[in-house]
Structure prediction request, 198 residues.
Amino acid sequence: MPRPRVSGGAVGRTAGAFARIADSSVVLGLTRSRAWIGLLGTLLVGIVALNVGALSFNAAASKTAGTSDELRRENSALRAQIADGLSNERLQGVAVRLGLVMPEAASTLMLVPAEGDAAAAAERLRRGEITLGSTYAPPAPVVPPVVEPVATEAVAPAPIAPAATDPAAATTPAPTVTPAPAPVTTPPAAVAGGAVAP
Prediction:
């Protein structure tokens, strides 16, 4: 974008206007009198007053910033106290002291309202079946029946009498016990060497 051109005539006219003000009788009379000293003194006092005001504003701003930092620290400490007061361990301890117990996972109920529940509740209130402010009475917990284990008597195997057999065909009895009430034995088997095991 091209820069606007300033004509030489405009600059000359502005410089001429300032020259006329400087050469005017008012300015010349003011600079040659004691009023000039008073005017300069007033301007200096105004500048000093502005500096003092700026310093006082800076001091107030720093004080406000310090107060703001202190309030932030107090807020952080209060948030920590609230977080500590609302911790699960503390709440559970208070609940135990009040006699409250944590419900079992299976004993909690999720109530989903159905259409007509409000009308049914209003009708039950009208009949006096429930009252406002009544507490919920949970159903009695279902206790599974205790099954006692059946005691079984250990059955000792009956002694086996050695069979009268030929010494050449000696057998060894191998008793086996099964869970059946009567013991079952197998016939004696032949052992190498002609010996018979009882």
Observations:
- The first helix runs from residue 8 to 22.
